[in-house]
Design goal:
mainly alpha, 12 helices, globular
């Protein structure tokens, strides 16, 4: 009987370990941003449009919101994405009536013209910075991040992801910091030759405890989603754990 029970226990352990490795096999070998883009590419057009609406968007991790924005194919779609974020904030937040004019200015900023190409104009960026400062002073830092940085609630939640994708996301996010630090230093050239942040916006493009200050060279990225405010500015540097 003891031998039978011992065999059963070993069998259970083998099943658990085997299941764990099966899950790992299903998980894309990718950094969080690449994993989010892979999931968005797997969606049909109807599902992509549905997840891009503020209600569902708010229940997704920030990396997935960014990937959905990047999948928009026209300036009009990109404009609609951010204008919907502003409208959702305006509808659900408790703010004074005279704040509506400020929110309307943010909505007007997100015109298709803004998203026809990544922004390089110093004049436009100065106007944008002034508007962001006014939003922060009037509505608070969380509102500024919602409306300009993360396209929704500042907390990165995953309730909106399908079960299997949620598991993949948590596994990717659960990679120990020691491994992430290795990725951000000696392995960086192999893993991210393309820039993924813009230092003009401090560390807004970087996740976790990373900053936009890697010493490694990278190729400037002007594809969508880009970096900075509304993910509409060129990516010119790499996020990493360096210099923390």
């Amino acid at each position: 009987m003891v031998k039978i029970m011992s065999f059963k226990r070993r069998s259970y352990v083998a099943i658990i370990v085997g299941s764990w490795f099966a899950i790992l096999a299903l998980m894309p070998v990718a950094r969080p941003e690449a994993g989010a883009r892979a999931w968005v590419r797997s969606l049909g057009e109807v599902d992509r449009q549905a997840y891009s609406q503020p209600g569902l968007l708010a229940e997704l991790p920030i990396t997935y919101r960014r990937a959905l924005f990047g999948a928009a194919e026209t300036p009009e779609e990109r404009s609609s994405f951010w204008r919907a974020v502003v409208a959702e904030y305006q509808a659900r937040s408790a703010h004074q009536a005279d704040h509506d004019a400020l929110l309307e200015r943010v909505e007007a900023l997100y015109s298709p013209a803004m998203f026809s190409a990544v922004q390089r104009s110093a004049e436009f960026n100065a106007h944008l910075a002034a508007l962001r400062r006014q939003v922060r002073a009037t509505l608070g830092e969380e509102a500024e991040r919602t409306l300009f940085v993360v396209a929704g609630p500042t907390a990165s939640v995953d309730a909106g992801l399908p079960l299997l994708e949620r598991l993949r996301y948590r596994l990717r996010e659960g990679v120990p910091n020691a491994w992430r630090r290795l990725q951000g230093t000696v392995m960086r050239d192999a893993l991210a030759a393309t820039c993924n942040c813009n230092p003009e916006f401090e560390n807004e493009d970087c996740t976790g405890h990373q900053n936009c200050a890697s010493p490694f060279a990278c190729e400037e990225d002007t594809s969508w989603p880009a970096c900075g405010t509304a993910w509409a500015h060129p990516c010119t540097k790499l996020c990493s754990f360096d210099n923390n």
